[in-house]
Write a structure and sequence with these properties.
- The structure is a homodimer of 211-residue chains.
- Chain A is α/β, with parallel strands linked by helices.
- Chain A is built from nine helices and eleven strands.
- In chain A, 37% of the residues lie in helices and 20% in strands.
- The first copy, chain A, has a seven-stranded mixed sheet with strand order 5-2-1-6-7-11-10, with helices on both faces. In chain A, strands 3-4 form a two-stranded antiparallel sheet.
- In chain A, α1 (14-24) packs parallel to α6 (156-169) and α6 (156-169) packs antiparallel against α7.
- The first copy, chain A, is globular, with a radius of gyration of 16 Å.
């Protein structure tokens, strides 16, 4: 069995975690474990959804794949400034064949020291933050640098998960998984790409009207 | 505040619920409540992830929007054959301005009697099942018939959620939400559309190799 650990924390963006989970967990050859700072429920940034971490970091000592999703302040800031968490991430990373982040999860990998000198993707609003950890920010939806696979914001985790399926399970099965998820997206507004859509007016709207 | 109730159950497909949740919950004007048969955790079909229902059906008597995600046997079958659940769905539906399903959630709405004589979308493998409830199956990714908004399988719930944002919150804010989710998808394999990809060989692979 391929062991996949997904780290979850208070403030997490649910789709960052569930996007890659949905594809990789479809294979019978994969066992996914949700891991929290401690075992128990964590809440999304808007508090409306709780996901359960079945294990705490003290219970997990290795994984074939580590996935670190993103989230928002204050939970993300806590994860960025938590040396015990960083030590665990480095310990697990030493055992993985692939280490992944989705969205602002790249900031957590960066804070743990894993992205220094590497090229990585993150949410379009988090690029300056990621650069602080010595990473070169890519505008690609998915970036691979060595064994580090990082994605752009939120929904890009679905593409990261399917890419991972192709790498680990083979293209034929990954194609079947994409079909089983009926992943033939039709974004209703066509505004998901920051270039040219992240205009100052729209960024202000995101800051003022959204949580 | 706009009240959105998302029904969750053992056997649920996580992305069916989290896809629409991720967009609609980003507005400060929306309160999302996860509702289970009873309050407490439910597990996805593959058991790897537990989502917490903060309320049970006895705690919720109305909603502006009801979303019913899908899942797999045996949990889906339980929901399809549960008259107490169906009575609750009809009670809530009598109070909503929009009632939605994602994927095989349409079978639950159908079993509750809400889709008789209506046109609806569902997962490509569930069309025959949906027809049994007197619905006409659409191959569209999103179908609107009166106040019923139904989507195709799994990942189509993201498109449904953003469509709902446009209808309820206005196009400008929905565009900003799509950008905040960086929803500019690039399916790695291009096999998400059942036509022409749901060949007998691939359907057999899905049945044999996937959970």
């Amino acid at each position: 069995m391929l062991q996949v650990a997904i780290y979850v924390f208070d403030g997490i963006t649910a789709l960052d975690a569930v996007g890659p989970f949905e594809s990789i967990s479809r294979s019978k050859e994969v066992q996914v474990t949700f891991v929290g700072r401690q075992a128990g429920a964590v809440r999304t940034g808007n508090k409306a959804l709780a996901l359960v971490a079945d294990k705490g970091i003290d219970d997990v000592r290795s994984a074939n794949v580590l996935i670190v999703p993103g989230g928002g302040a204050p939970g993300l800031d806590d994860a960025i400034s938590d040396p015990v968490l960083h030590a665990w991430i480095k310990e697990i990373d030493a055992t993985t064949s692939v280490t992944c982040s989705v969205c602002t999860g790249a900031l957590i990998l960066g804070a743990a020291g894993l992205l220094e000198g590497r090229t990585a993707s993150t949410h379009w609003r988090a690029k300056a933050g990621l650069a602080r950890y010595g990473a070169t920010c890519s505008s690609k939806r998915i970036t691979r640098d060595g064994k580090y696979l990082t994605s752009a914001g939120v929904s890009a985790g679905i593409d990261l998960g399917l890419t991972l399926c192709g790498n680990l399970l083979g293209v034929e099965l990954a194609e079947a998984i994409e079909l089983s998820m009926q992943y033939d997206p039709t974004p209703p507004f066509g505004t998901g790409n920051p270039e040219p859509h992240a205009t100052p007016a729209r960024v202000r709207m995101i800051e003022q009207m959204l949580r």
